[in-house]
Amino acid sequence: MPAITIHNLNKSYINAEGEQTRALDDINLKINEGEFVCIVGPSGCGKSTLLEIVAGLLDHTSGEILIGEDPVHGTSREIGVVFQDASLFPWRTIRKNIAFGMETAKVPKAEQEKRLQHYIDLMGLSGFENKFPSQLSGGMRQRAGIARTLAMDPKVILMDEPFSAVDHLTRCTLQEELIRIHQEEKKTVLFITHDINEAVYLADRVILLTPRPGKIQEEYKINIPHPRSREDEYLVQFATRIMADISRGNREEEKVEYFI
Fold first, then answer.
1. How far apart are CA 99 and CA 104, in angstroms?
2. Rounded to the nearest 5 degrees, what angle is found at the Cα of 255, between the Cα atoms of 252 and 257?
3. Residue 71 vs residues 20, 47, 170, 194: alpha-carbon distances, Å
4. Range of the structural domain that residue 66 is part of
5. 190 vs 43, which has greater pLDDT?
6. Residue 23 and residue 134: Cα distance in Å, rounded?
């Protein structure tokens, strides 16, 4: 059974004047357990909207989303979300930030300590766990945010451009850390990004959305194992192909708008 099933999903917004804007149009997607899927597409195509609907943070207009066999109705501890900003509490140490969700969920203390130490080690935060967010770099804060999500042991992890706010070298390091964690933890990951090279480097499968309203334009299976080389000709060709398909989709959208 797929970890995530999205069936005939549609999302529209209606403004104060009663005008309707369609954000997502008939999205159908199945993501297998343990699969790493990246969603890409032009700005405004509904990538983040799709993630927020799957996370239970935003209502959809029609269709269905399942996590395993369970429909998504609001947020769930089975779904972990990592946003662009780590959103750590500035008055809590890194250790206490990572523990926050477990405290709220009333995870037994012994289990909290076990998970805390595991994810502090896994995310390379040893020696920094008693510092406050303001004392750490953006990359280290984002590591702590990811550790906080992992510590809740969700079935799926949703990530909305989690590395976009850090510099290129830190971004590359965090990508490699995420791959290592994914291989160790075997979590299902749905990852939103504008960076095509990031998508083909990370993902088992890349989904391209059209310009608004977002529809699935293409799916790409990345058939090479990790660890991968960023200079691999196969990945370079895939990234070039996706960029060409994005440009084609944009041109087709412009033609539609022109004739309307």
1. 9
2. 110
3. 26, 20, 37, 28
4. 1-78+159-247
5. 190
6. 37
Query: Do residue 187 and residue 146 come from a single domain?
Result: no
Six token digits for residue 7: 């069936």
Residues 178 and 137 in one domain: no
Residue 253 lies in a domain: no
For residues 249 and 244, what is the distance between their CA atoms, to the nearest angstrom? 9
C-alpha angle with apex 172: 209 to 162, nearest 5 degrees?
50
Last residue of a domain, one of 153, 174, 203: 153
97: alpha, beta or left? (left if phi > 0; alpha if psi -120 to 50): alpha
Q: List beta partners, residue 82.
A: 159
Would you state the pLDDT for residue 257? 44
The pairing of beta strand 188-192 with beta strand 156-160: parallel
Chain segment 61-112, per-residue pLDDT in tens: 999 999 999 999 999 999 999 999 888 999 999 999 999 999 999 999 999 9
Domain count, the chain: 2
CA distance 174 to 125: 13
Q: Does residue 194 share a domain with residue 65?
A: yes
Give the separation between CA 19 and CA 58, rounded to whole angstroms.
Answer: 19
From CA 139, how far away is CA 124, in angstroms rounded? Answer: 11
Give residue-wise pLDDT tens across range 206-247. Answer: 999 999 999 999 999 999 999 999 999 999 999 999 999 998
Do 73 and 163 fall within a single domain?
yes
177 and 210, same domain (yes or no):
yes
pLDDT (average), residues 51-62:
96
Residue where one domain finishes, among candidates 138, 153, 168: 153
